[in-house]
Amino acid sequence: MDRLSSPIDLDYSEDFKCAAHPSYSSQDIRSISSIIPFSEMPHLSINDGGKATCSFDDEMEFCGWHNAQDTVVKFWKAYFDQNFDMDRFDCTSVRKFDIDRTFLLAGGEPILSPQKAAIETEIPCQYGDSVIRFDFWANTLNPILRFCLSHSAEITCQDILPMPNPVNFSVPMTGEPITVRIEIVNLQENDIILIDNLYYDGQICEVVEDENVPKLLPTLSTVSIPQLITGSPDTAFFDDDTSTEQTTSNVHFSELSPCSALTCNFNDGDSCFYGLSGIGSTSSWQISDKLTGNRHTGIQRINLDDQKKVGYAFVGSDTESNINNNFVMESPKFTMTQNIIVSFDIYVRSISPQLKVCIDNFDDCQYTSPPVQKNKFWHSSQNITIPEGSKKLFFVVQNVGKHQFLAIDNIKLKTIDGDNFCE
């Protein structure tokens, strides 16, 4: 190679951009932000129906997260005004953060010594483990991000190791109320932090006091895992009158109405009341609010029956094969008092993945996904009849190879005559 005639092509564009757009200070970011108080009490607690997944964009979001009461520095809901410069923001920190309307902001104000800021939520009880994900940004390396879990007068905290957004941590299964806390320590005067798109991937249950016979029904940890697709979950998981000698708690789990338990359009960043890693799962379903996967076999077409906002549950990956995994999306418990129809949309573009919809156990699977069609990807209004007395619904996918995907959307309930059951 002629080193003189063929110089190395170095990219200095980022350096040039940041030379022309100096970084923001914490005071700069605070000054170009419109801030709204974020309460020390939840808008609506999770126990009363509030949401554990929050985008902070909607005033009527009924978010179950709130400021911690024991901190000096508080979070505010904030959004940038018209003077905001995205180039300057990108040059302030190497950490990427998508600006999406309203977010949480803390810091950028005078303090005499390093402080902490924290948000919390109270989970009444939880089937299985959950994962909490969110976007985090700081203008310096001073703040330390960690999570804390508090129950039965015990508090444990753990640093969240540096990772790209969204950062995440897990919450173990619990049959008693637990406080989950996202905490930032070592927050100094020149520091400012942002949090957004807080997503809870888990299955919340309800704690109810039983005045007559205090007890706790078995959760997923006390039932045998079925072998898909021919196994059956332990009947104790579905029977309100079954007790267990392994527990001594004085609470039990109540159930939801069929409309609350089963309907979901996945447009709010969560799976409603469905557990994405239900009983028998070896891998979890995921939620997406954008097109997913490669252009040939990925989910690259919007659902024309749900164009208001892209949101769906899916399985599949371009980076690894899941051919030996079971994906089980499990409804919470309900009691069906009449025969109804569950309707949903399915995205199928590969031959191998197969969806089955099972009622109460994995022997009664009355629906199998349709064959692949060359020019049709979303199949609308797939119907399955749920008989009176049913208590559970399972969406089960197997045989998902690398670069293969399957999705579902718009789970609705209809009467046998085809009318909307949940009106």
Mean pLDDT: 81
Class by SSE composition: mainly beta
The succession of helices and strands, N to C, reads: HHEEEHEEEEEEEEEEHEEEEEEEEE
Distance between the termini: 74 Å
Number of helices: 4
Topology-level CATH name of the largest domain = Jelly Rolls
Shape summary: globular
* Number of β-strand runs: 22
Annotated CATH architecture of the largest domain: Sandwich
Largest sheet: 6 strands, antiparallel
Key terms for this structure?
single chain, 423 residues, mainly beta, Jelly Rolls, five-stranded antiparallel β-sheet, 4 helices, globular, disordered N terminus, ConA-like_dom_sf, MAM domain-containing protein
How would you portray this structure in words?
The longest helix has 8 residues. A six-stranded antiparallel sheet has the order 1-3-4-11-6-9. The protein has a five-stranded antiparallel sheet with strand order 2-5-10-7-8, with no helix packed on it. Strands 14-15-22-17-20 form a five-stranded antiparallel sheet. It is globular. The chain folds into two domains: 193 residues, Jelly Rolls; 208 residues, Jelly Rolls. The N terminus is likely disordered. The chain is mainly β.
